[in-house]
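Please, structure for the following, as C-alpha cells.
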Amino acid sequence: MQSSIDRRSNRPAILLVDDNRDLLRFLERLMSESGWTLLTAESATEAKQLFEKNRPDAALLDYMLPDGNGVELALEFHEKKTDLLAIVMSGAILPPEEEALCEEHGFPVLRKPFLASDVMNQIRRRLELHSQAEVKFTSRALKVFFSYSHRDEKLRDRLDAHLSSLKHMDLIHSWHDRKIAAGSDFNEAIDRYLDNADLVLLLVSPDFLNSDYCYRKEMKRALERHAVGEAQVVPVILRPVDWEKAPFAHLQAVPKDGRPITRWANRDEGFLDAAKSIRRVAEELSATLRRS
C-alpha cells in the first residue's frame, strides 16, 4: 500500500482499491503516463486510511472487498468530500438497492472486464470538469465564500443546492474548502479565495462559534473586508446558538428574524427563505459592481 502523496505536488490524486493485486498493477501501468498521483489499497481499511491522509480527487473502487464493498466506501468518501469522483468496479450485477444508490449519487459502475479507455475517460472527464469549475470561480460572476464548521457540512450542501438557480444564471460561483485540490496548500487556498470573494456567508452554529479557525481567522478577515467595502458578509443562522453579542451581530442575518434553519418545521422552507434573501443581496451587489 502506498501510504501518502507529496503534498507539494499539484497533480490530481487517484485512489485505486482492489484486493486483486494483479489488477492493481494493471491499473497502475495503465495510468502511469497520465501525470496523476496514484494511491493503491487492497482492502477497505487501507483505503480509508489513505483517503483520510490524502483526500484524493477520484477513487476507483472494487465492489467486493475482504472487509467491505465499493458502494459503501463511495458513500463514506462522498460524505467527507462531495466533489470526489467515485467509480465502482464489479464483475457482477449489483443488488438493486445499491444500483439505485450509485445512480442517485452519480457513481459510475464499470463492469469487469472493462476497456482501459473507459476507465481513463471517466476519470479524465471529471477532472476536466473540476478544473473548469476552478476557472469559473475567477470569472465575472460573484464569488461566494462559505465560512462554516465541518460539522455543518450537510447543512452547507443543502444551502448550496438552494442557491443553484443563481449559479445556473451565472450570477454567483460558490466555493468552500472541500473544493481545494489535492496537493494544494490548505491555508494558502483559503486565504486566496477569502481575499477575492465578493460575498461571504457565515454559516452560524455552536460549532462555528467554537471553531478558532472560523471565528478568529475566516470571520475576522471577512468582517475586515466588509468594513472597508471590499466584500459583503451575510450571517446564515443554521442552528440555535447565542450569537447576539458576536462581532457580526450588527449585520442582517438570514433566514427571516435570524430564526435558525433547524428550527423550521420544514427545513427546506428555511433554506428557501435564506436563499431568497441571499439572491437579493447578490443582485444588488452585482449591480453595484457593474456600475463601478
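The radius of gyration is 21 Å. The first helix runs from residue 21 to 31.
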